[in-house]
User: Fold this.
Amino acid sequence: MDKRLKSYRDEHTVQLFEKDKVSFKPEMIGQRYCMGCMKSYVATSQQCPFCGFPADSTVENGNFIIPGTVINEQYLIGKSLDYDGYTVIYIAKDCLTGQRVMVTEYLPSFLAYRRSEDGIVAPFSDAKSNDYEIGISGFIEDAISVSSMKCNEIFRILDIFEENGTAYIVTEYIEGVSLEEYLEGNMCLTYQDSIGVIRQLLDTLGYIHEIGMQGFGLAPRNIYLNNAGGIKLLNRSFGKSSLAECYRYNDGIADDGYAPEEMYGNLKRIDERADVYGLAAVILRMLTGATPVNSLERRIKLETTGKDPIRQQLNLLKDMLKGQINALANALNIDAEDRTANVSDFAEEFLYCESVKLKKVTIKSGGAPKSIVFMKALALLSLVFMLSTVAISIIGNQNTELVNFKSYSVPIDDVCVPNVVSKNLTDVQKSLDKLGLNIVIAYKKQSNSINADTVVSQFPDVGSLVPYGSSIELVLSAGSRKESVGDFTGFGVDSARLILETCGFKVTTREESNSLYARGVVFYQSVASGELLDAGSEITLTVSNGNESVATSQEIYIPNIVGKKYDEVLETMRQGAMFLAISGFTYDSAVGDGVVTYQYPNAGESGHAGEIINVKVNKTQNKTVVPNVMYLYVDDAKAMLEANGLEVDVKYNSSSAVAAGAVIDQSVSGGESVDSGEKITLTVSSFYSTDVPNVENMAYYEAREVLRKSGFSCSIDGYTATISEDAVVETQNIKPNTSVEAGTNIILTLKESK
Assistant:
């Protein structure tokens, strides 16, 4: 444990490892490893050509291992990827196998530090030494236990060892990003986009509990999304339970927002319900874009106000079934005894939610560790007192000003953003206009449960302070719509699914044997072609599972079927051990109905029996209904129109009222009937620039309205908390008639008129 940390970093080559019997391929001589991605490149380059990491980069935290250090005479340490106050994760290279790995180092910030003179991790004091050693033992024991787990969704442990006064766990490296990185910037997912990840989390956590592990510590930073669409869970809880049994630590034990309050105290109370809470909190983060409120802060607000901030966040889930929202609420109950008992029960409630009812709970005092709650409460009360004092002071000053100077108080560059979610656009426009705020429509999204032009979400968030004249970005409901179902007989299942889902339908598939169609080709659909359905309705496609009688080893030549009737060549091709799959349609009045206009592979090419020939089939001009794509993102609008057999042309025009990338006009209105193949022109919003008006020497209250109506916000430089009726604009920071992007904040300097 006291082995001295050796640095083997070399600025130019990897030859240096030879002295420690670490073998490298001869072709690696004269190259260096990138400390950012652990790929090799020529030593003369000053930065990595793969990730851009500088060759001479130094350690970003003096408490971390210096990049270029080799530990256990095997692992070349690169940059740190994450630190939660308990463990550090580094990217690394296994010098014996050449594989990239991740190395997790036990480094609890509340117990120990790294000595600068030798790199050894040591406790802060003798008093903390015992707890530190207990943590190391628990860290290793938990890692050994997990290393035997047979679960593809958990990072595989490759090595466990002690060195430099601490312990290390080596895990596999995956190509992908953490869920936290994926959701960066308050991004949120739809239920449909997130359900795949949710199901994997449910299954994986269920397995973890089956083998007796609890308190896994789910949080977005510990959930990785690989490039194949699967998940990997990184266990960051090694040794935490053993450490917390003797100390009530906060830092590094619990992930704020995702840990129930029992995770902040003695962890003897931890069971499956803690992980149920963490999983529900992760789901809430994915679906709302906001990190759930810390459970200790929830306790304070519940006991002082009777209001639960989590329930307020759940109210944002307007597009979900009531039973699902109730399932999340039950899983997030602050008292463990009121919470959903286990992952299996939660999965059943959340996925099959028709009859889930909200649990009636009674808020009990003292659920969290007393010392922590007290300190949080004290801080909250101090803040309230401070704000109250400031408010009293302001009110007093206002009264004085009102008496002496006939002036009145206005917010200077800080209008408070109200909550407009679930309100109609017309009402929102009126209320925001009164506050001096503008509206920008970000886009619209289809919803069967929310009326058209109802606000689904807003940015900035409720309570944000923004300059007068700022624009509030709104996402609106487009309401429900009817879509015509096309004929997908003969389509490859992937092509059919893509088109149907683009039109807003839910697609399920089932397989049956069919001698006429190749494996993966649709031969029956549950809803007849031409039928009008609500977007979101489910359509079942019956797909052929192939023809086992076809000898695939037989070599054949592809015949020319372009210009022939699809229905006529379908059986002929089958007799020749070839199958057709429709990939789309053409619309040419000069070509007969049902005629093949395209094939791939081309005629004359060689293939094998059972070969699938992708074709396009012509349709004579028939009528189709133009969908309403106003305010949709241009890519979504194009896909919807093309799925209805229409051609699309796009042009751009600047707009101050609609965010860039959304449709602001369509040449044929939604609901009109046109010939299939007709071209629809979409006008899409682009960035809007305009000239700044001249407001110098203008009365302030007039000036700010002029700026707002021109698409600009404004704030005041160096002025008092009240503004006189006689105040005028002396200067503006952007000169009049300068062309700038709409929404730019104009800073005004005021003076009193004489």
